[in-house]
Fold this sequence. Notes:
By secondary structure, the chain is of the alpha/beta class. The protein has 5 helices and 8 strands.
Amino acid sequence: MKKYTIVIDPGHGGKDPGAVYAGYKEKDIVLPIALYLGGFLSYTPHEVNLEINCVYTRTADIYVPLRDRVFIANNVKADAFISIHLNASPKHNAKGEEIWIYPGSIKSVKLADSIATYIDEIVPGKFRGIKEGNFYVLRETAKKKIPAVLIEVGFIDNPNTPLHCFNIQIRAAFVIATGIKKYLLNIE
């Protein structure tokens, strides 16, 4: 049985609301997505021969500094780090998902590719691609050779993609979990 540890990082929290639109806060939407994601990852049928232990950077509405999020991933020697976020746009009409990786991280590219296979199923329409960025959590986990992705699940301020809805949160978690499992099953 293959055993892996995945660190799930619901972005923002506590005093840091993240993007805010029409009374909805990013921190409140990404937390249930992250918790559902952990549930989907933890449950794997025996015939799949995969055991996944999920560790969260937060499970409640608390503020966790970025360095502490990275410390958690490095301390448990994570096999992958997944940070969940929402985008926002000044015009309130942008849509689609994005996956961010740290430049030059080959393992992160493979993880992002596996998730990208399914991600457009969250809100069908426009996957905006895999992009490279120098985000703290990606850079600092890359230093320890931990594959890491920061996923922008969609745009909080697009009224046509209500990410606060339960069914979209569940779908997002399931789709991301499917991609992560695909990645883990193909690690050599």
